[in-house]
Amino acid sequence: MYDPTVARLTYRALLGRRRALILGALPLLLIVISVVVRGLAGADDQTASDLLGGLALATMVPIIGVIAGTGAIGPEIDDGSVVYLLSKPLKRPTIIFTKLIVAIGVTMVFSALPTLIAGFILNGNGQQIAVAYTVAALVASIAYASMFLLLGTVSRHAVVLGLVYALVWEALFGSLVSGARTLSVQQWSLAVAHKVAGGDLVTSDVGLTTAVVLLVVVTVLATWYAGQKLRSLTLAGEE
Amino acid sequence: MTTLSIDHVSRWFGNVVAVNDVTMTIGPGVTGLLGPNGAGKSTLINMMGGFLAPSTGTVTLDGEQVWRNEQIYKHIGVVPEREAMYDFLTGREFVVANAELHGLGDKAAQKALATVEMEYAQDRKISTYSKGMRQRVKMASALVHNPSLLLLDEPFNGMDPRQRMQLMDLLRKMGDEGRTVLFSSHILEEVEQLAWHIEVVVAGRHAASGDFRKIRRLMTDRPHRYLVRSSDDRALAAALIADPSTSGIEVDLAEGALRVQAVDFGRFTALLPRVARDHGIRLLTVSPSDESLESVFSYLVAA
């Protein structure tokens, strides 16, 4: 199911100079803001929770997920270099699964790790807030990476669609329409975080069981469907 | 012995028919797939390579379906037309990766790099390569698993004459070894120099198939048309029509020129200047009016 060569090609493409800069910029911003907030306001659990929930989990994780998930396959399909993977006796689901593992890994490193660091800077992991949001970021990384990898496989406009989902659906509709919150990776991962932190600082609109079921279903379905789409991927000629 | 069979294959994109009911069999040796730009060559090669499903018909390699059959790539090497190829890798890293994806190692990669004579630049990033170097590294990646069928889409595009010759030698060698090599081209001379057998595709249809010399004769023996201006058009017309190499002449008053149709290309080109000199006529313009590849192809389709 996992091919180390596909993995190597994927992470080297993902961590190419320009993309690595974009991937690194947001986590750096989060950490800088955390240092400034801690310096100005001191250690405060509520502030820590607001910042990690609003900036890290709601904005940074999905954006990193979009970059890593779509970037793991989209550019190769766009420029046609995916032909070098497709012209090999490799099962298509193996290609997708390997790329998913890399995308998840990159999303976790660039979103969950900085969330943990920012949490410790903000309130020294008081009330387990840093760990809870880190767990949420880890869980969300898996779901986002699989969703955006699928988008990268099926659409040439994957980055735009991904950003629309992440920023418009999750951030905007999520705050206005309660129904939208049920169908939000962010809320599902918050349900897991709530379990870790306990208390009222980290809350979710979705129950833990529902959240876990939906996370698993979305991840598995997206990965399976991406494998199917890659099996019948058509490489158009230049004519 | 590897035989690729294309059986009543059509492919359409929406309302556009790109390939129309093509049937052909490609056997060992070098076969040229010839046709003008937009004739459907790439669509056909993509179907042969299993990257595109035929709308109807089947493509099989020694009886095995090509579409949706990953295992077939143990026998197929593909050199795509598109340039993109993991530019951030070095040539060696790229070929090694291709070998690994076939379950092979460094040794196979080195052998393939040696075959295309790219060892000298193997440690440079692909992004620094010239077009010809890229083409050779692509070849190495396609040869790494010693495939019995090699598919190349417009492999000579953008190559300089020396690189072109090197690649031709290499492909000829592959054909001599008994591999089935198919390359597409829209340039007659390329196909003439390399292919033992050609398949001509025009406007999505299979227009001709067979030995190159036979088809080339059809191409050179076709009537050639010339536009000729001279100091005395009518006297020249009278002198030319007396020779059997000329089958018709029209005096185009609007253009102020003669439209000459010649049936024997070699004889006519020798005749024209001689006749003009003998009659004291000055030739002002002699230009072929149907030398475009499309007209050659459309003649072939009609033949």
The average pLDDT of chain B is: 88
The helix-strand sequence of chain B is EEEHEEEHHHEHEHEEHEHEEHEH
Annotation, overall tally of beta strands of chain B: 14
Class inferred from helices and paired strands of chain A = mainly alpha
Work out the helix count of chain B: 10
Q: Round the mean pLDDT of chain A to the nearest integer and report it.
A: 90
Oligomer: heterodimer
Question: Major sheet of chain B, described briefly?
Answer: 6 strands, mixed
Taking the alpha carbons of the first and last residues of chain A, their distance comes to: 35 Å
- The backbone outline of chain A, from C-alpha atoms, is globular
Portion of residues within helices of chain B: 25-40%
Protein name (chain A): ABC-2 type transport system permease protein
Keywords (chain A): Membrane, Transmembrane, Transmembrane helix
Organism (chain A): Streptomyces pseudovenezuelae
Pfam family, one (chain A): ABC2_membrane_2
Explained architecture:
- The complex is a heterodimer of chains A (239) and B (303).
- Chain A is mostly helical and 239 residues long.
- Chain A has helices at residues 4-14, 17-41, 45-71, 74-79, 83-86, 92-123, 129-154, 158-176, 178-182, 185-197, 208-231.
- Chain A is globular.
- Chain A starts with a helix and ends in an 8-residue tail after the last helix.
- With 303 residues, chain B is α/β, with parallel strands linked by helices.
- Chain B is elongated, with a radius of gyration of 24 Å.
- The A-B interface holds A 3-6, 8-9, 12-13, 16, 79-81, 83-92, 231-239 and B 18, 37-43, 45-46, 49-53, 68, 70-74, 76-78, 80-82, 84-86, 88-89, 97-98, 100-103, 141-142, 153.
